[in-house]
């Protein structure tokens, strides 16, 4: 698909066309603390009950250590295949038109393991920032530009591979979509160091690996970025390739769902029960089916509309006689893509419950 930009008609007196060297860009990084790989797992699915996930319940994944950024020295450089390269300071960025997007945020999982284990690193948050498309219009990409490379101020070693920055890329078609932000707030608060502050890229509908933290550079190019996080890590075998050979980048989020009520191993007073959960995908989820055993006897739940790129609440009432049950949720997206039963990182979520006739004080 050919993407065309409309030439901006307004002047942007806040920007600077004095382009910094790489050394000048990286003067804003006062160090890496803590260094090395870090992960903070989210709570179990049944504890992710609120529509907006608080920061302290949202997973954290840091590959090479967290950059300590001096905001007074921070610059964002937009360059490459553009007519008007420029830089922004943080105060200049904050004066540009701002947008808030509600979006699920999901970690793909380990890039060094097969994508078969469900990790449930998921939350739903509100990002505030400047639309990437606004900045690209200011720079005016050349016709041959096809990708937007993003670079962070972090550096170090991950899984034996050393890099002087975390570098990713976006196809220009996705970069121009209105949901993609250069963000500086999470849930109404400035981004912390651990969240990639002061500024990070946010790409709703795509996995978190594409959302470069401690952002310092956006460069338009006609080929994919060559750093290890695009060439070595975060590529997977395309499950739609019957030959099992073709690889694809880890970009868009696959259809997924999970059960948040009841909790695993719950003992519930029957016969009438309410089952609830979340469903999400790059595109809206239109159906969630609930199975009550491994014989795949599925019933359809009610699915709430999506807000921006948020996860979607689903709910179903069931009448179950006393006994032991395995509940399973299975979502389907607007284009008909359904969660696999097994073999993929987004396979159906399941949990066991017991239904009894009467449990005093039971739910």
TrEMBL record:
Matches recorded under InterPro entries: Ig_E-set, Mopterin_OxRdtase_euk, OxRdtase_Mopterin-bd_dom, OxRdtase_Mopterin-bd_sf
Domain Oxidoreductase molybdopterin-binding: 64-227
Gene Ontology terms for molecular function: heme binding; molybdopterin cofactor binding; sulfite oxidase activity
GO BP of this protein: sulfur compound metabolic process
A GO CC term assigned to this protein in UniProt: mitochondrion
PANTHER family: SULFITE OXIDASE, MITOCHONDRIAL, SULFITE REDUCTASE
Record's protein name: Molybdopterin binding oxidoreductase
Species this chain originates from: Zopfia rhizophila CBS 207.26
